[in-house]
Design brief:
- The chain is built from 10 helices and 8 strands.
- With about 450 residues, it is α+β, with helices and mostly antiparallel strands.
- The protein folds into 2 domains: about 325 residues, Up-down Bundle (Outer membrane efflux proteins (OEP)), CATH 1.20.1600.10; about 80 residues, no CATH class.
- Strand 6 and strand 7 form a beta hairpin.
- Helix 2 crosses helix 4, helix 4 packs antiparallel against helix 7 and helix 7 runs antiparallel to helix 9.
- The longest helix has about 70 residues.
- The two termini are about 50 Å apart.
Length: about 450
């Protein structure tokens, strides 16, 4: 009974441990990376700041409104606010005002600031989307590296399983005197080499898993793994389009190009803002004010004077003022002129950067187009090599079984097959990734189906 309980507890522990390991698909990895990347979160905050800038630019069109009030008490010499004559007494005074001002014309800089704020928000969105595109590509590459490592590891283990059978059979033949002991040593050396391949393969898969987890910013490496899936070369007709067609298509939607174009538009608005400083500015203002003083005296109509109460004084002494102000720039030490020059240079730099980004995109697509063709041929060549090596191994095995080949030569034939199988796996995933890159530049989503 005690042993049964222990067995059940052990089984429960193993099941719970295995249940904690989540198997991630490519789509889940991509979505998780985009949602949890810290740089993306920073760029999203920059986008929020850009939206606040739009609110600031809108506020520049609206009139300002402010109110003020003050209360003071003077003892000794002061000016009587009623008759503006000197007096020597104690007085309590209250002043209040409400002021509004509006910019009527400022060289259209408010308009350009609004346009710039809108364009800056769009540019920050393109910047964010471009980062997401880069992350998707990086995650897809890392995911395929894990898949490639896992597939190679399966191949290594399958090869070792075959070698174990050969080792067992060779031991029997050596013990029966049919084969020399040197053949057994050769097979044991082959088995040891394959065990080393398995160890290296496990390390490769672990490193690839860690790299993928780091891209996803997951620190629980031990419980992170991808789904056990095998992928064949996905069907694609992307090469039916020329590299030029793919490039022209990419220009219409690529976020890095849209970002560069937005930067050119931003530079144009900056130049307009700088030139606006050459023009005069016109503003208007309106002010309402009133006051109270406990030493105020006004005629009572009967030859005497009296001090009105607080409320009455506020109505008696209130008043308004309004007007307009025109500022004409004449000379400011070439500040405006130099700012225009700087903005002009920034515009030219933005245009050059746009052309440079287009050239870089074209070169990237051209290279990706060549890579697809190259890796497709490399994969096909690897398949043919594996087929030839496998036939050669079958022939070598037949000769070895009949005593016409020694164990060393047979081991070399087996090693050539092992290398050919590894090349097939490597070129297969290299080809898949290059294919997906080219499709990505053509506007197709990254999937392995």
């Amino acid at each position: 009974m005690k042993r049964s309980i222990t067995t059940l507890l052990l089984l429960f522990t193993v099941l719970m441990s295995s249940a904690q390991v989540r198997k991630w698909t490519l789509q889940e990895c991509v979505e998780y990376a985009v949602e949890h990347n810290l740089t993306i979160e920073q760029f999203e905050l920059d986008l929020e700041n850009a939206k606040i800038d739009k609110s600031d630019a809108l506020g520049n069109f609206l009139p300002s409104l402010s109110g003020s009030t003050s209360a003071s008490s003077n003892t000794g010499f002061s000016i009587n606010p009623t008759n503006n004559l000197p007096t020597n007494s104690t007085a309590f005074n209250v002043n209040a005002s409400l002021t509004s001002s509006v910019t009527l014309f400022d060289g259209l800089r408010n308009v350009y600031q609004m346009n710039r704020a809108k364009m800056n928000a769009i540019a920050n969105q393109y910047r964010l989307d471009n980062l997401k595109d880069d992350i998707r590509l990086n995650v897809a590459n890392a995911y395929l590296q894990v898949l490639s490592g896992k597939e190679q590891l399966k191949t290594f283990r399958a090869q070792y399983a075959v070698t174990e059978q050969d080792l067992k059979r060779t031991k029997e033949l050596v013990e029966s005197g049919v084969l020399p002991r040197g053949d057994l040593l050769e097979v044991e050396a082959t088995a040891a080499n394959q065990q080393q391949q398995i160890v290296n393969g496990e390390a490769t898969v672990l490193i690839a898993r860690v790299n993928l987890a780091q891209l996803l910013q997951i620190t629980d490496y031990e419980n992170f793994d991808i789904a056990e899936e095998e992928f064949d070369i996905p069907p694609s007709d992307i090469l039916n389009n020329s590299a030029k067609v793919i490039f022209n298509t990419a220009l219409t939607f690529r976020n890095d190009i849209k970002l560069s174009e937005s930067n050119v538009e931003l530079a144009k608005e900056d130049l307009k803002i700088a030139k606006g400083a050459y023009l005069p500015t016109l503003g208007a203002f309106f002010q309402y004010g009133t006051r109270y003083s406990d030493v105020t005296q006004i005629p009572d109509g009967n030859g005497g004077v009296y001090t009105p109460n607080f409320t009455d004084q506020l109505w008696i002494f209130d008043g308004i003022s309004y007007g307009a102000q025109l500022n004409i720039p004449i000379f400011n030490g070439w500040t405006t002129k130099n700012n225009v020059k700087r903005s002009t240079i920034s515009l030219e730099k933005a245009k050059l950067q746009l052309e440079q980004d287009k050239l870089a995109l074209e070169n990237t697509i051209q290279q990706a187009y060549v890579d697809v063709s190259t890796f497709e041929k490399a994969y096909e060549a690897a398949l043919k090599t594996l087929e030839a090596r496998t036939l050669a191994l079958d022939y070598a095995k037949e000769r070895y079984d009949n005593g016409l080949m020694n164990a060393f030569d047979f081991g070399q034939a087996q090693a050539r097959v092992d290398n050919a199988q590894a090349d097939v796996i490597r070129t297969k995933y290299d080809y898949i990734f290059r294919l997906k890159i080219l499709e990505f530049y053509f506007g197709m989503p990254i999937t392995l189906n």
